[in-house]
Amino acid sequence: MTQKGYTFIELIVVTTILMILASAVMPLAQVVSQRQREAELRRALRDMRTAIDQFKNAVDQGRIPTTELEPENEGYPPELDTLVQGISAANDASGRKLKFLRRLPIDPMTNSTDWALRSYQDSPTSTTWGRQNVFDVYTKYGGTALDGTKYSDW
Questions:
Q1: How confident is the model over 34-52, as pLDDT tens digits?
Q2: Rounded to two decimals, what is the model's pTM?
Q3: Which of 54, 58, 65, 118 sits a CA distance of 20 to 30 A from 89?
């Protein structure tokens, strides 16, 4: 009588082949995950920068009174939370606030809403925020992207 089933050698060969295939797939999965986080970072930065630009346009058009802003502010939001909490609209007796973001996006690289900021008066290469206003936003994560650029330069 012959017994049916796999031999021990056949099981070792199949297990080895599966391990080789799995080791080839793991780096690819890591690259796909990193690429997805990079896309989320670009989207979050674009959303916040668009909101900052909309705030500036509202100030320039007179929809936001400059009396609520600091004199050296240049028409930019005083902090990121202002984009979410809103600011009183000019010539609006109803007390309605202009809001530019529903919530602060989460930085996919640091998993927090703690973003690095730059004010209009700061140097373009500054790594500290001068606290006059929010002119630009970038990630605090110091890593390098798949294309070789630093995330903080995006």
A1: 999 999 999 999 999 999 9
A2: 0.77
A3: 118
